[in-house]
Design a protein that fits this description.
The protein is of the alpha+beta class. Helices cover about 30% and strands about 25% of the residues. It folds into 2 domains: about 200 residues, FAD/NAD(P)-binding domain (3-Layer(bba) Sandwich), CATH 3.50.50.60; about 140 residues, D-Amino Acid Oxidase, subunit A, domain 2 (D-Amino Acid Oxidase, Chain A, domain 2), CATH 3.30.9. The strands form 4 sheets. It has an 8-stranded mixed beta sheet, sandwiched between helices. A 6-stranded mixed beta sheet has the order 9-2-1-13-20-19, covered by helices on one side. A 3-stranded antiparallel beta sheet has the order 3-8-4. It is an enzyme of class 1 (oxidoreductase).
Length: about 375
């Protein structure tokens, strides 16, 4: 008999898990306290950049990110096909800019191990960099170019995921307010005091992002997931002056097809507060004009913040609980939820089917490692 799965959380991770589980034939219910994609998912810049954002070593987290990047071409097309909605998926490649010749050695060191994992990177001098990005600051000495990195328009992607889930028959219950897990072994039960609803299933997938840590008492285990506020701003640039995702040591700039230029991210610890602060946005303004001088005289047309679910070691909680036959985790993806959505969905669906996910050191993400 096919087991029913309840997914706790309607962000990009929860919706992706629901989408893949339903594609494999499982009945699925998604429970969301607010609205789907209303937190970190919809606020993300949508970068798919494991090489640019993992610069030290090919640790298990890098390998997880890389496998997800490789899944993306087929994954995003499947979401579009099922939902009937289009969203931006741009294979622009990325540039990691440096300002000093002394940084070249570090760039070469990064290049040496990343190319073993398919980066196919190119170390550019200043002349070649300006051919690719004519508006880059003259102080930029060069860049490491990653042709295989890409990005999505996060709000459109999450909207399409939700629609794809609905069209496949996933039951989505959002706007529930507080949710309480009242049983998580030998089946699962979740109560929603404000709506008066009670939901039961054979399996429970915890995919509640920054709120996962609030479930420690209910699940009687340590769940060290806590919110980090990420503040982002965007500029109106209808002439698309930036052609690639552009990173530097201070942050990133990425242009979208709708004419917006997204700059991020300024991070701080503010609990579950999602307000935008002048201090946070000023941090972005303090460096982005040095990367692209034309930004120095511009004002953002949009400023926003999202809560990123961080863990103590920077790795997500991904896999089945060793203490319950009914409990799985897909939480704590920090700033990589959009990138990691396909691989997370595949891991959870493989576990539900009793299959082994090959090529990934899943022990590093064990939910009870703390």
């Amino acid at each position: 008999m096919t087991q029913h799965v309840m997914v706790l959380g309607g962000g990009v991770i929860g919706l992706s898990c629901a989408f893949e589980l339903r594609r494999r034939g499982f009945p699925v219910t998604v429970l969301e306290q607010g609205r789907c994609g209303g937190q970190a998912s919809g606020a993300a810049a949508g970068m798919l950049a494991p090489y640019s954002e993992n610069t030290e070593q090919p640790d298990p987290f890098f390998q997880l990110c890389l496998q997800s990047l490789n899944l993306y071409p087929n994954w995003q097309q499947a979401v579009k096909d099922v939902s009937g909605l289009d969203f931006e998926y741009s294979a622009t490649g990325s540039l990691y800019v440096h300002y000093h010749e002394a940084d070249v050695l570090a760039m070469r060191s990064r290049q040496s191990w990343q190319d073993d994992y398919g980066a196919a990177s190119e170390l550019l001098d200043g002349r070649r960099l300006r051919e690719l990005e004519p508006h880059i600051a003259p102080e930029a000495a060069g860049a490491l170019y990653y042709p295989g990195e890409s990005h999505v328009y996060a709000p459109g992607y999450v909207k399409a995921l939700e629609e794809a889930c609905r069209k496949l028959g996933v039951e989505i219950r959002d706007g529930l307010g507080e949710v309480q897990v009242t049983r998580w072994s030998g089946g699962a039960e979740v109560c929603c005091p404000l709506s008066g609803g009670t939901f039961r299933s054979d399996k429970l997938v915890v995919a509640s992002g920054a709120w996962a840590g609030l479930m420690e008492a209910a699940l009687d285990m340590r769940i060290p997931v806590y919110p980090i506020r990420g503040q982002i701003c965007a500029y109106e640039t209808p002439d698309m002056p930036v052609r690639h995702m552009v990173f530097c040591s201070q942050g990133y700039v990425v242009g979208k097809r709708n004419g917006s230029l997204v700059c991020g991210a300024s991070e701080d610890i503010a609990g579950f507060e999602t307000s935008v602060t002048s201090k946070g946005i000023d941090r972005l303004k303090s460096w982005n004009g040095k990367l692209f001088p034309f930004l120095g005289g511009m004002r953002p047309f949009h400023e926003w913040a999202g809560l990123r679910p961080a863990t103590h070691d920077g790795f997500p909680l991904l896999g089945a609980s060793s203490r319950s036959d009914s409990l799985l985790f897909a939480a704590g993806h920090y700033r990589n939820g959009i990138l990691l959505s396909p691989v997370t969905a595949h891991v959870i669906a493989d576990l539900m089917e009793g299959r082994e996910t090959t090529g990934l050191p899943l022990g590093a993400f064990a939910p009870e490692r703390f």
